[in-house]
Amino acid sequence: MPELDWEPLDFLQCLGAAPETNEGDIDWDGDWVYEIKQHAFTLELVLWPNESVVALSLMPDDQSKPMISFTVVVRGPVIYKNEKWGEYMVFSKCVVVPSRYYYHQHNDVFDNDKYPGWVDMELSVYPTIRIEFK
To answer: DSSP label at 99?
Structure first.
């Protein structure tokens, strides 16, 4: 499994939040958790860099369960963009999967022949949280 191609400082710049990290007992088990509160919502972004897996959950502040939650395997680089309208992260060549461990159970999601489809996911948090698939 290839590692996530990313720059942690780009996330700090774009998200405006430092992560909580859990390196775990095994090198590949560490996660990075970003929590961003905007208006009446909380976005939780969890990265497992050694697995190229990213999970997102968006929760209204007045509810205990997320209104949307999904996981992607990122097959391309994560790119920080600073455009005239704002800053955002592009997660390139994502495969949307049902869980973090999907790749353990269903072949290699990095195999373009078995999984030819992918989407780019854009994430911005200012002025509002925006998640867009292209």
So the answer is: S
